[in-house]
Amino acid sequence: MSEPVVTPLGEGWYLVDDGERRWRVAVAGAGDTQWVFVNGQVATVETPTPGRRRRKGGDGGVMSPMPATVVAIRVAPGQAVAAGDTLIVLEAMKMELPIRAPRDGVVKTVACAKGDLVPPGVNLLEFE
Amino acid sequence: MSRLVHRSLGEGGIRRLLIANRGEISVRIMRACRELGIETVAVYSDADAEASHVRAADRAVHLGAAPARDSYLDGSKVIAAALSAGADAIHPGYGFLSERAHFAKACEEAGLVFVGPPASSLERMGSKIGARRLMVEAGVPVVPGETPADQSDGSLAAAIARVGFPALIKPSAGGGGIGMKVVRTAADVGEALAAARREATASFGDGTLYVERLIERPRHVEIQVFADAHGNVVHLFERECSAQRRHQKMVEESPCPALSPAVRQAMGQAAVAAARAVDYRNAGTCEFLLEGEGEAARFYFLEMNTRLQVEHPVTECVVGVDLVHAQLAVAGGAALPFTQDSLSQRGHAIECRIYAEDPAQGFIPQAGRLLLYREPQGPGIRVDSGVTAGTMVSVYYDPMLAKLIVWGETREVARLRALAALRDFAVLGIHTNIPFLLQLLEHEQFIAATIDTGFLDREGAALAAASVTELPAAALAAVAEYRRTAQHSGTPGTLGTDPFLTLGVWRV
Lengths: 128, 508
Fold this sequence. Notes:
A: 4-stranded antiparallel β-sheet, B: 23 strands
C-alpha cells in the first residue's frame, strides 16, 4: 500500500487518503498522549518516554481510578484487612465507588481524609 | 413590594426566568426562552463558572461550592438568586429540585412562579404507596400486589394465589433486592416465604412481607401528559425506554413498536386519569410496565414523574410540539396550546444519551477536559448538549454530556440516521458510550424491537466487549501528522520512525 496522504483540515481534523479510500480523522492532546477519532471510534496513542514509567496500582497501596471525592474511610493504620475488604469509599458522578483491598495485609498509612478531592493514580493508602 | 408585581403575571406571562439547573437541559430551556422573548437567569456552582449554560444566559448568579448540596440542591440559595436577579419564575429542569414539593411551595411563598405542577400534586405523587392507592381509585391498572395484615404462611399463600404466578415476595421494609424471592408454583411458596422472612428480619429488623405479580421481561413505556389551570388535560402518546442499564436509560424512542392502537389509546386515557386524580398541572410523565405486545399487551402504572423528562425531545419530534414553550405558557396562566384531537404521531424518533463513561472499563465515569468536540448535523438530527470543546467534565454531577435525537419517516430510517450521526459525533479527551451505542443500535434485538428492561443488564458486557474495535491505519497517519507539527509535542516526528511506539491504550 502506498504512503497515506494526510491533509490537515484545521482544528484537529485531517483527511487521510490511504490509496483505497479517504478517512476523516480528528486528533487532540498534548505531550505523549494523543486522542484520535474516526467513524465514531476513539483511541489513545501513547509514546513512552525513556526512563520514566507510569505508576500503576502497585502492591504497596491503592489509588483512585478517576478524580473523586472521599466519602468514607473504613480502616485505620495498623488494621489487618483481607483481600476484597472495602478500605475507602469514593464518590464520583453520583456513584459510590468502593476501593477494596487487592490482597491480605496490614494498613500502614491512610493518605487521604474524608471530603478530599483525590486525583487518579495517587496512593490513598499504603500497606506495610 | 415588587413581589406583588411578580405574582400577577397577567397578560404578558413570564418575563424573566431563572433556570435552576445546569448542563443540556438549562441550555435547552434558555433556547426556548430566547424564542419567546423571555430573559434568562443561570445559576452556577464553583465547578461551572465557565459552563455552557452560564454562557448562554442573559444573567448568571453564583450559588456556592461544587457539590450539588451546596449549590444546585440548595433551594433557599436558588430562591434568593431569583429574587436578586429580578426573576418572576423558576424552571427546575429535571433532577435536583424538580420534584421537591417543599421547593415548589417555597417558590410560591416567595412570589415566584414554579414552572411545574403545584406542590400538592408533587406531594401526592411523591409517596409511592399513596400514589398507588390513588391510581387504584382512579381506575388506573397497577401491578397486582398486597401486604396481608395476617402474615401467616397460609394468609400469604392465599395472597400469592390472588396476585397470580409467577409472583415476587419482598420485604415491606426492603430495598436493593434483598430478600426478594420469585415463586413460580404453589409448591415453592412455603420455602420461599421462610427464606424471605429470615432475610427481611436479618436485614431490616422487620419480617413483614409484600407479595406482587412478577412481570417478566417487561418493557418500560411511558406516556407524556400535559395539563393547564383551565381543566384541560391531554396526553402526547408514548415513549419506549426499555434500553436501560441499572435503571439508567440509554436509548429512548417513540412510537413504541409493541403498542397496538387500542392499547396506546387505553394507556393514554389511563395517564390522563392519573393526572386528573392529583389535579396535575404542566408537563408530566406516567411510567408503565408493559407485559407482552400487540392487542394482548397489558400495562401497569409504575409512577408519575412530575417534571420535564430527559427524553422529552422524542415526543417533540414525533408529535411536532415544543414542550418547553407549552410549559412556559401554562405556567404563565395560559391555556394549553393544543387539544387532544389536534395531536398525532408522525414518523419515528430515537434519542441516544451520550454519557461520559467508558464501556470498555465497566462504564466507569470519566472526568477531564474535552479536547475536541464536534456534534453531528443534518436533516432530522438534533443535539441537545451542555458542553463544548474545552469544557471541563467534573466528577460532581450527572455524567450525561449530550443527547442525540434523530427523526425519520420510519423506525429503520431513524435507526440508520442515528448510527450515521453517532459515527460523526467526535468527543476527544474522555471516553464516552458512543462506541457502545453503535453496537446497541446494530444488535439484532434492537433492530427487531424486542428489547426489555433487563436486556442491557444481561447483554451489556458482551456489547461493551464488542465495542472495542481496531481503528484503521489511516488514524495513525493523522496522529503522525499531528505530532509532526511541533507545537503539539515535545518529540516531533517520532511516530513513523520510533520503534518503541506503544499502542498499549490503542483500543475502542
